[in-house]
Design brief:
Elements: E1 2-6, H1 8-16, E2 21-25, E3 36-41, E4 47-60, H2 78-89, E5 98-108
Parallel strand pairs: 1-3
Antiparallel strand pairs: 2-5, 3-4, 4-5
Length: about 110
C-alpha cells in the first residue's frame, strides 16, 4: 500500500475532517483515483489511518485559484506558497511546476 507523509498538525486536520486535499509535486508514486494510502506522521513515522483518493487534478502552481484551496491549507500569497514548497522540493520549484491536487476520503483511523 502507498504511504503519504504529513506534518503532525496536518495529520490532526485530516483526522478532524478539515483537511481533505493534499498537493504533491514531482509525484513519484503515481497517485491515482481509487488508490488507498496510509497516513503517516512525518515527524515520528507513526501511522494514523488510511484514506482513498477520490479525485486528482493537475495544474501549474501559477494557475492556482481560490477555489483550489477548498480542503487544503491556505498561504498568505504566491511567494509564501513557493517558499513552502521549496522547503520540501528545493529551488527547482517555480510557478510553472505542475502540482497534483489529490482529494481523499478517510476510510479508517
Amino acid at each position: 500500500m502507498k504511504t503519504l507523509k504529513f506534518r503532525p498538525e496536518l495529520v490532526e486536520q485530516i483526522l478532524n475532517g478539515t483537511k481533505r486535499v493534499t498537493w504533491r509535486l514531482f509525484d513519484d508514486k503515481n497517485l491515482s483515483v481509487g488508490d488507498n494510502f496510509k497516513i503517516i506522521n512525518s515527524k515520528n513515522g507513526k501511522e494514523y489511518g488510511e484514506a482513498e483518493i477520490v479525485e486528482v487534478k493537475e495544474k501549474k502552481l501559477g494557475e492556482i485559484k481560490d477555489e483550489d484551496f477548498d480542503g487544503h491549507e491556505k498561504y498568505k500569497n504566491q511567494d509564501d506558497m513557493l517558499e513552502h514548497y521549496r522547503k520540501y522540493y528545493g529551488d527547482k520549484v517555480n510557478l510553472d511546476i505542475i502540482v497534483k491536487m489529490i482529494k481523499f476520503e478517510l476510510i479508517n483511523d
